[in-house]
Amino acid sequence: MGRKFTRKFDPESPRDLVAEEYDAHQPSPSMPIPRVARGWVLLLPGGKPLSLYHQRHDCAALLADARLSEQCGENQGIQRVKVDEIGARPDCVACLLCIEETDYSKFKSCAVDTGTDRLQGTRLVWRADLAAGWCAVVIYKLRNRLVADIRTAGELKELSDS
Fold it and tell me: What phi and psi, each to the nearest 5 degrees, are found at residue 40?
């Protein structure tokens, strides 16, 4: 569902090894992700400091947040909410991957330790995992592709926004 297309539907085109490697290590969440009609958004509550809402059911940040929610033992499920109602909720912010009109000041810049590099990224949401401590959904650019991934607090370093 939220997977990268490794051959762009053309078996004769060259393979994208980066996308294939990413696909091999990103399991799909087991919770059902509903499709949304115009005028509705998807919300996965429980994120800290704010929960993200999404317009696309296949948003990479939504899929990563759903995996993290399951990993943390949260069984709240993804909710469909009317767009008119979501604006009145102070505990929610628009996802910057699938919604253009979002408040970027609600997100924190961070450095992501990938094991081989330290890349600049953006932390979207925190969740408490009993086994690994605090984990976050972060987005960063890896080999010219925007990736949404789960990282532990030890793999992140907050950057000053000056």
Answer: -125, 155
Could you state, in order of their start, the residue ranges of all structural domains in the chain? Answer: 17-158
Q: What is the pTM of this model?
A: 0.74
**What is the reported pLDDT for 20?**
61
Query: Computed from CA positions of residues 84, 81, 94, 153, in that sequence, does the dihedral angle turn out positive or negative?
Result: positive
Q: Rounded to 5 degrees, what are φ and ψ at 85?
A: -80, -30
Which among 114, 139, 144, 135 is positioned nearest to 124, based on CA atoms?
Answer: 139
Q: What is the DSSP-derived secondary structure letter of residue 154?
A: G
Work out whether the CA dihedral 59, 63, 44, 138 comes out positive or negative.
negative
**Non-local CB neighbours of 146 within 8 Å, separated by 6+ positions:** 60, 97, 139, 140
- pLDDT tens digits along 65-82: 998 988 888 877 888 899
- E-strand ranges in 24-153 read 40-43, 51-54, 79-82, 92-94, 108-113, 118-129, 133-142, 145-152
* Owner of token pair 């997100």: 107
Higher pLDDT, 121 or 36: 121
